[in-house]
Design a protein that fits this description.
- The longest helix has 16 residues.
- This protein has a single domain, classed as Rossmann fold.
- Helix 2 packs across helix 11 and helix 5 runs parallel beside helix 6.
- The chain is built from twelve helices and ten strands.
- Strand 8, helix 7 and strand 9 form a beta-alpha-beta unit.
- The chain is globular, with a radius of gyration of 17 Å.
- The chain is about 40% helix and about 20% strand.
Length: about 240
């Protein structure tokens, strides 16, 4: 049976020029932080930007950007919340700080429903903070939004790279577009991530040093703009979006 919501999702994003997904093989590599700050960088560069947090069990973009409790405005679905000039949507208003004990199929159904009711405006970029790993929701999103361009986030940790290597192999074999790899929280000189990028025939977009002051900037967009992550993403923005 064909799910009509899938067609609804395509209609909801028809005015979005490009979709950038932040993906990782595992959690804890700074995916949400990079997704949030990249949205600020894009907005500050003059682009029309949306940010979608789809990390169902751990939505965090609203915390990073300092978005308090908010409700969606209903208009033939829901309109994203506007923050710092960015159209923002997250599952958070529906779950708040409660744990949601749902299994894979139920989570997939909830995300499908959520995607099918968001009325995005005319956007140059929609940045998606994807669920970590290669779960059912992750695979569903790839199917619903097939033209997504993927930016893979990792740290130089051997454990992170092991899962990232599998993710990159999957994306490559399925012929999804990989924009490149962002190495985050780099604390020492190493070419381990660069070697992985070369092995899978993709580019290492940038190397972001560990910023011990980042925690103090969480929740304050003005402070986030002074972080090493913001500065590095701003400098490498043409490389990130493939317009260098």
């Amino acid at each position: 049976m064909i799910d009509a919501r899938i067609y609804g999702i395509a209609k909801r994003i028809q005015n979005v020029r490009r979709v950038l997904s932040m993906v990782s093989g595992k959690g804890g590599v700074g995916k949400s932080t990079i997704a949030s700050i990249l949205s600020l960088v894009l907005k500050d560069a003059g682009y029309r930007v949306g940010l979608l947090d789809l990390d169902f069990h751990g939505p965090a973009c609203h915390i990073i950007l300092g978005i308090g409790k908010f409700q969606y405005h209903e208009e033939h679905g829901i309109r994203p919340h506007i923050h710092e000039g960015i159209e923002f949507a997250s599952i958070y208003p529906f779950v708040q700080d409660n744990y949601v004990p749902l299994r894979g199929r139920d989570i997939s159904n909830a995300i499908t429903e959520f995607l099918s009711i968001i009325n995005w405006g005319d956007l140059d970029f929609l940045v998606i903070d994807m669920p970590p790993g290669m779960s059912d929701p992750f695979l569903d999103i790839l199917r619903y939004i097939p033209n997504t361009e993927h930016i893979v986030i990792t740290t130089p940790s051997k454990l992170a790279l092991q899962t990232v290597a599998r993710l990159l192999l999957f994306l490559r074999e399925q012929k999804y577009r990989i924009m490149g790899i962002i190495e985050n929280m780099k604390t020492y000189e190493s070419n381990i991530v660069r070697k992985l990028a070369e092995k899978v025939d993709t580019k290492l977009i940038c190397e972001i040093p560990y910023d011990g002051n980042l925690e103090e900037s969480i929740g304050n967009p003005a402070s986030l703009r002074k972080t090493d992550i913001y500065k590095e993403l701003k400098e490498k923005l043409p490389r990130i979006i493939g317009e260098e």
